[in-house]
Amino acid sequence: MAKTFHPLLALIASATDRELAKYVEYIMAENKF
């Protein structure tokens, strides 16, 4: 694994299930546009 990985990956890894679900929904909504 690369020593320097995307900050968002670190955020997701440390996020709670509720925060992660909310984040995923946001990304999916953004990708629609």
Automatic annotation (TrEMBL):
This is Uncharacterized protein. It comes from Rubinisphaera italica.
